[in-house]
Amino acid sequence: MTSTASAFPTSPAHPSSAAQPYGPAGDAPALLLDGIAKTYRSKAGAVDALRGVTYHFARGSFTAVMGPSGSGKSTLLQCAAGLDRPTNGTVVLNGIPLHGLGEVALTKLRREQMGFVFQAYNLLPSLTVYDNVALPLRLMGRRPGRGEVEAVLTQVGLDGKAKRRPAELSGGQQQRVAIARALVTRPAVLFADEPTGALDSGTSRQVLGLLREATVRSGQTTVMVTHDPVAAAYAERVLFLSDGLVAGSLDRGTPQQIAAAMSELER
Ligand SMILES: Nc1ncnc2c1ncn2[C@@H]1O[C@H](COP(=O)(O)OP(=O)(O)OP(=O)(O)O)[C@@H](O)[C@H]1O
């Protein structure tokens, strides 16, 4: 792509914006990426997966990350969540710079301030729905209150399913358990990686509706990687990556507009 300006309105993500107040309360962004670069080195050579990504994810925003295969989406998510370390640049989550943290502190931060939803639901098969959802609280050293677990099960429409085990649920219901498990700690950022990749379109709509509702009702900040323009249209903004760089963004795009922007990037 030679120019991104017309098809992709410029996002408000520039290094200087880190110094600006955010939102009505002047809060820092939920997630700030500043000049993130990631080079993978192997015997086959070096691959520059990210080449300087600067972006802020405002509190309470729901952002989809899209881009052609190999554009760096998974790498971005991994670096943002502290699952991998960038070669250069800074990630600041809820005001906490990740680069200064050791593995133990990073694990604690992930448990307490991040939620994860993947294509594979990753539920523990031997635990009930209730215990799967309560697990992150237990891992934080907290005794889960019955009310808080039940409230989040209600939020995802799983009333009455608390005693079931994952194998007794449909795929869509299992993904809703995974979302409940991700939301129960009230994380600063919920990371979702192809959350509807294994679901049919009707069930996908329900799951995406839940993610959107969590933003609208509870101010949940969500970052979702997806290949699907229909899924991305549930987000307020789509951030496009191309060849390890931010190519632009699109606010409140329709699936058709998002698909057209993707086609332009893939040309
Ligand atoms: N562990 C690794 N070692 C070497 N290269 C890697 C590694 N992980 C990713 N890459 C390379 O980095 C680039 C970005 O990969 P990444 O998985 O982030 O892209 P993506 O946009 O998520 O792709 P896809 O849509 O196909 O999942 C690609 O060229 C990929 O081959």
**What's the gyration radius in Å?**
18 Å
Low-confidence stretches: 1-7, 9-26
Largest sheet: 6 strands, mixed
Described by the principal axes of the CA atoms, the overall outline is globular
Which molecules are bound besides the chains?
Answer: adenosine-5'-triphosphate
The strand line-up of the biggest sheet is 6-7-8-3-9-10
User: Structural class from helices and strands?
Assistant: alpha/beta
CATH class designation: Alpha Beta
Taking the alpha carbons of the first and last residues, their distance comes to 8 Å
Helical proportion? 25-40%
Tally of helical segments: 8
Word description of this protein:
With 267 residues, this protein is an alpha/beta fold. The protein has one domain: Rossmann fold. 33% of the residues lie in helices and 24% in strands. It has eight helices and ten strands. The protein has a six-stranded mixed sheet with strand order 6-7-8-3-9-10, sandwiched between helices. The protein has a four-stranded antiparallel sheet with strand order 2-1-4-5, covered by helices on one side. Strand 9 and strand 10 form a beta hairpin. It is globular, with a radius of gyration of 18 Å. 43% of the residues are buried. The N terminus is likely disordered.
Please name the defining characteristics of this protein:
8 helices; 4-stranded antiparallel β-sheet; Rossmann fold; binds adenosine-5'-triphosphate; 267 residues; disordered N terminus; alpha/beta; 6-stranded mixed β-sheet
Summarize the structure.
Residues 1-19 have a biased composition (Polar residues). With 267 residues, this protein is α/β, with parallel strands linked by helices. Helix content is 33%, strand content 24%.
